[in-house]
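Usage

Read records sequentially. Each one opens with the input sequence:
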Amino acid sequence: MKTRRCGFTLIELLVVIAIIAILAAILFPVFARARDKARQASCLSNCRQIGLSLQMYAQDYDEVMPNKWWDKNGCTEWECTPAIQLVPYTKSTKIWICPSKGRGAPDPTQSLFISYGFNWWAIGKPLAAMDRPAETIFSTETGATADLKHLGGSKGSGAADGAWLDTYWQNYSYPRVKVSAYSKSNTNTNHRFQTQKGKHAATVNVVYADGHVKNTRPSRLIWGNFYGVFEGTYKSQGVTWDAAVAAPEMDEQESTVE
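and closes with the structure output:
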């Protein structure tokens, strides 16, 4: 007597494969969004710790912002920025690494790079001299290449020095330069902030001078948030305080700079 062999038919196998493919197509984007949200939350936690360390530093130094700047040719983002001044108030150097960007990994004290940049217009200023500290940016996520040959002081280039949001960056950013793509000739430095790599669903995390933190789109900021000026006719590099920092279409864009 012949025994009947049990098994799936070809049609049944194809149906099962199709169902798995459909479920994967539905679930993978959900998992990706969940992973991105986790990275955003981790980065926001980093920024909160930076904000707390800023508050403690200000309390110890008569309400004055950290003021470390390039003080020699060939400075690095670790030793010649306020990051090193905040070390006594932070528990870990790893807070200077955004998990989405990874710039500075695995340890900023070794790589000499960080994932967060400082507002040139705010460092070294007393809180009492700021009209609106809660609206003036102290630090925020930034991006640029991690090439030591292009890093620091007079050796800097548009491809590096991501730890500084300064007049050089502004001079080659929106609205003065409306092109958002990264240029190998370094004629555009929007990738330091406006089109930086590793955004969190078109948003970035920002630390304000009073120590509080906010997640926002670059296009929702104005240059006054960097200048610390919110009225009058003030401008820098020909850009007025009420001009947008980025165009809305830049929020979704990210540079290919590593």
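Summary fields computed downstream for this record:
- The mean pLDDT is 86.
- The chain has one domain: 10-250.
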